[in-house]
Amino acid sequence: MVVVSRLLAAFAIVIASACLSACLTGRPQGGETVLAVDPVRTGQGGNDGPLAVVRARVDVQARAVDAFAVDAFVPRDADGAAVGERVLIVILQERGVAVERYYWLATHLASRGYPAIVVDHFADAPLVEIDNGWLGFDAVRRAVRFNGALKNVLPEEGARAIVIGHGEGGRAAQDLWLRYADVAHFIALGSVLAENVAPIVPKDGGEALCIVGSNDDRRPRMQAACTPSLITLIEGGNHALFADFPTAVEQRADGALFGDAAVLRRHALDFLDVWLDAKVRDDDAAKAALVLIDEWIAAPSNEEKRQLVARRFPDLGFGR
Fold first, then answer.
1. pLDDT of residue 160
2. Could you check whether the bond before residue 155 is cis, i.e. omega within 30 degrees of 0?
3. How far is CA 49 from CA 35, 114, 223, in A?
4. Distance separating alpha carbons of residues 82 and 95, to the nearest angstrom
5. Span 22-319: which CATH code?
6. Closest among 47, 107, 95, 112 to 71, alpha carbons compared
7. Domains of the chain: which residue ranges?
8. Strand 52-63 to strand 32-35: parallel, antiparallel, or no bridges (unpaired)?
9. Cα separation of 40 and 14, whole Å?
10. Start-to-end Cα distance in the chain
11. Nearest to 96 by CA among 124, 68, 69, 117
12. What percent of the chain has pLDDT over 90?
């Protein structure tokens, strides 16, 4: 028994040494198409883009005796080739919310050329396994050299992550953004962020973005923590807006939703898409839209600017 115990201990040390970052427990799957290519889809106004999206599951060996699942959403062109940006969008769940309820967001982003992953955590609690987001990113960039759904989806060198967190996942995203140099930006959705890390200032060219519904109970604390980063307020939105299939309990606890959820979500996606296009693609039109918002924030009494912003981004308010 002593010999067996020592052998098991030695094996655990070998595994831990080999997986100081992240290891795959197997080769990536071939994946399944969850959205077909459609050139009619423009990717504008918060609508899906024209690319096909393939979903594949990757199991990541994170620690010596622990693994977790990552669902990857890969953009594909009409010929089935992987296409997209040199960044990976990492989506972190709210506490108690299953990862499947964020597939809609990952699918949307991938359809516009942004590969995305949704990262699972033990007991659906992102702060329990706070490094899973970065470990999932690291596993995907290691998997791009293997045949399967993830082949060539990112460059083998130089890829960076943008972490999006909902609720408690936003707190985890904030932590990863502060600790890891290859996490370029972080986006918080209805999150109570760490109060001892305010104000949130740009990091080596990276920025933070906060998006929250006007009827989300977390809004006052989130706005206080996000200053001076850009804060986007969804008029009539609540906390459950960002996750599919809200339960009756969540709807009672999360504040009332005023307005059509699909419309409010589309308006929020419209702005998120513009922000990503400005920061990642250096798109001139997207950058001009952000400049317009900042001009209105700097001069809130300017009625002309206010109307221009309201027409471009209905149901949304902005501040810093």
1. 94
2. no
3. 10, 10, 31
4. 32
5. 3.40.50.1820
6. 107
7. 22-319
8. antiparallel
9. 52
10. 63
11. 124
12. 67
Place of tokens 């399944």: 32
Query: What is the distance between the alpha carbons of residues 54 and 72, in angstroms, rounded to a whole number?
Result: 8
Whether pLDDT at 191 is above 80: yes
CA distances from 29 to 20, 26, 54, 106, 148 (A): 23, 9, 10, 18, 6
Do residues 53 and 111 lie in contact, with contact meaning Cβ atoms separated by under 8 Å? yes
Instruction: Find the radius of gyration of the CA atoms of the chain.
Output: 20
Given this model, what pLDDT does residue 253 score?
Answer: 78
| Four-CA torsion 264, 268, 270, 273, nearest 10 degrees | -150
Say if residues 165 and 173 touch (Cβ distance below 8 Å). yes
d(CA 21, CA 18): 8
The pTM (predicted TM-score) of the whole model is: 0.90
pLDDT tens per residue, range 76-126: 999 999 898 989 999 999 999 999 999 999 999 999 999 999 999 999 999
**How far apart are the C-alpha atoms of 244 and 189, rounded to whole Å?**
14
Tokens, residue 87: 């960044």
Structure tokens at 165: 């967190």
**Strands 32-35 and 66-76: what pairing?**
unpaired
Q: How far is CA 15 from the centre of its chain?
A: 29
DSSP letter at 288 equals H
